[in-house]
Amino acid sequence: MTLLEVQKTLQAELLTLNVDLSRDVSSACASDLMSDVLAFHSPNTLILTGLTNQQTIRTVEIADAVGVVFVRGKRPENEIIEFALKKQIPLMTTNYCMYDASGLLYAKGLSGVTEQVRNFHKRND
């Protein structure tokens, strides 16, 4: 799934214009605890959260995630959007709650990070 497909599936508004939405998304992590995101992320993870502060953007950088979808119509302040744009981190907002957004993405074939981690361990055992 690409970020553009995520945007369409969640009827999301793109907050960071001129970013690459053709990037592949291999899994999603839905959490408001950025420590959980760091503990359970995998490559090409999309973060779904209601947390709109700079910690979210820093977590995306550290985890090398592909982008953020803010749920429940949450919108970060303009300075956060500008910071993400400088880092070329796609930000979107959707009116869906976290549960519904996760379910819609899962129904379209996007797995959760726990499934990705489990498959990684199976391949490397």
What does this structure look like?
The protein has 125 residues and is α/β, with parallel strands linked by helices. The protein has six helices and six strands. The protein has a single domain (3-123), classed as HprK N-terminal domain-like (Udp-n-acetylmuramoylalanyl-d-glutamate--2,6- Diaminopimelate Ligase, Chain: A, domain 1, 3-Layer(aba) Sandwich), CATH 3.40.1390.20. β3, α3 and β4 (67-70) form a beta-alpha-beta unit. The termini are far apart. Residues 116-121 have low confidence and may be disordered.
The radius of gyration computed from the alpha-carbon positions, rounded to a whole number of angstroms, is 13 Å
- Tell me, what is the CATH class? Alpha Beta
Q: How is the quaternary structure best described?
A: single chain
Q: What CATH architecture would you give?
A: 3-Layer(aba) Sandwich
Spell out the CATH superfamily. HprK N-terminal domain-like
Number of helices: 6
Q: Which regions have little confidence, pLDDT < 50, spanning 5+ residues?
A: 116-121
Q: Describe the strand arrangement of the main beta sheet, using strand numbers.
A: 1-5-4-3-2-6
Summarize the main sheet: 6 strands, mixed
What is the helical fraction, as a range of percent?
Answer: 40-55%
Mean of all residue-level pLDDT scores: 90
